[in-house]
Amino acid sequence: MTPSVVDPGPARALAAAEPGVFWLADPDRPEPLPALRGRHEADLAVVGGGYSGLWTALRAKERYPDLDVVVLEAGRCGDQASGRNGGFASSSLTHGFGNGQARWPEELSALDRIGAANLEAIGETVDRYGIDCAWERTGELMVATAAHQVEELDDLAGEMRGAGHDVELLDEPAVRAQVASPTYLAGLWDRHGTAMVEPARLAWGLRRACLDLGVRIHEHTPVTGLARDGAGMVLRSRDGRVRAGRVALATNAFPPLLRRLRLMTVPVYDYVLMTEPLSTEQRDAVGWRNRQGVGDSANQFHYYRLTRDNRILWGGYDAVYYYGSRIHRRLEQSEVTHGLLAEHFFETFPQLDGLRFSHRWGGVIDTCTQFAAFFGRAYDGRVAYAMGYTGLGVAATRFGADVMLDLLQGEETERTALRMVREKPLPFPPEPIRFAGVQLTRWSMDRADANAGRRNLWLRTLDRMGLGFDS
């Protein structure tokens, strides 16, 4: 779908949308925890209270029950990407089968197996700790909306089946029988690789589980400094400090505390709409009885899903990078992108004309040139980090937490032996080259979508270099 002027129908549907995050407006949102004050000590300090940090703290207590763990969160746990996303928990650790096959083909079977076990373990965690987050193992439906994408889905289905994945290729009548859209030409249903979840509630449930296991969590505690301190590390905030033997950095899109990482990722804004609940007639008009998560096959893709009260979350398409890696609350709203999303929604579901959007928001995520998370250590192994999840971290962050703990404990595991874990992506260039390169890439991806998938010289060059930009 190419940008155009938003017609009055989508504009009316957006008119009363609240400029805020639907998931975070939940009345069951927990009360904030006190900020860090004074001097403290811990065995493990975790910086960041999103999925990455919370999984690290929880897995630390599950793996090493006697470990004294503290989490330092700049705002409130789950308020950033972890509480703003679409709620697609994918078993893929490589940002999809295709990316994994292109980058780590010799270990993709192991990565797929570990990823499937990781997703299963998240479901078990949700059950064990009684986390009310509407966990649904629905799978995901990838749809073709252009002729060239049909052939691409056919090729992908064959490759995935050859690798042992249980996927079903759907022709036009079959895919429209699953979800009724006049734009669908084919579909690929991966029945087992994705679960739907209410993202903020998952984060809050992990927070509660950490507290119950004795983890100390301090919110409204931005960490301003990281330095050696004897045999350990010291973390400083405005009103306190923590001395810890080991530190896990889980800040993702936000500026890292390690200078070496500052060009390894760029922050991009992803934008989302949420509809009001569908009536019985509207639900019948779209079908969607199997409640799969859905994503289209374009370079600039949309993702969408049903909520427990049968709203439609609709996001994606525009991954916006702001010059200088700018992050600011004002950037969480975009009249242009939200307008485009509304227009695209009604192109996909014209039978829902008259439906209104209740919420509109955006959030910042980190992307890297390999599209999948990367890991490492610093300060002679006292500090570990995981970042670069590129919008697919709802489930992969649990795997990343175990990788960081392996690295901090000096344990040689199947995870740490993976080339995917040992290698680092190439960095992005500094400004202004970075901004120019990202903009050229986005333009080229849009042109490829409009030209039967044909990639121009710039994209082909990036492909040869193993570089790219995605969300």
List the helices and strands and how they pair.
Layout: H1 8-14, E1 38-47, H2 51-63, E2 69-72, H3 81-84, E3 88-90, H4 97-103, H5 108-128, E4 140-144, H6 147-162, E5 167-170, H7 172-178, E6 186-190, E7 194-196, H8 199-212, E8 216-218, E9 223-229, E10 232-237, E11 240-249, E12 266-275, H9 280-286, E13 293-296, E14 302-306, E15 312-320, H10 335-348, E16 357-367, E17 374-378, E18 383-387, H11 393-409, H12 414-417, H13 419-422, H14 433-450, H15 457-465
Parallel strand pairs: 1-2, 1-11, 2-8, 4-13, 11-18
Antiparallel strand pairs: 3-7, 4-6, 5-6, 9-10, 10-11, 12-15, 12-16, 13-14, 14-15, 17-18
The CATH level-2 architecture of the largest domain is identified as 3-Layer(bba) Sandwich
Strand content: 15-25%
CATH-defined fold name of the largest domain = FAD/NAD(P)-binding domain
Number of domains: 3
**Major β-sheet annotation:** 8 strands, mixed
CATH superfamily of the largest domain: FAD/NAD(P)-binding domain
Quaternary class:
single chain
Strand-pairing-aware structural class: alpha/beta
Helix content estimate: 25-40%
CATH class of the largest domain: Alpha Beta
**Overall average residue pLDDT:** 95
Instruction: From the alpha carbons, calculate the radius of gyration and give it in angstroms.
Output: 22 Å
> How many DSSP helices?
15
What does this structure look like?
This protein has about 475 residues and is α/β, with parallel strands linked by helices. The chain folds into three domains: about 180 residues, D-Amino Acid Oxidase, subunit A, domain 2 (D-Amino Acid Oxidase, Chain A, domain 2, 2-Layer Sandwich); about 240 residues, FAD/NAD(P)-binding domain; about 35 residues. The protein is about 35% helix and about 25% strand. The chain has 15 helices and 18 strands. The strands form three sheets. Strands 1, 2, 8, 9, 10, 11, 17 and 18 form an eight-stranded mixed β-sheet that branches.
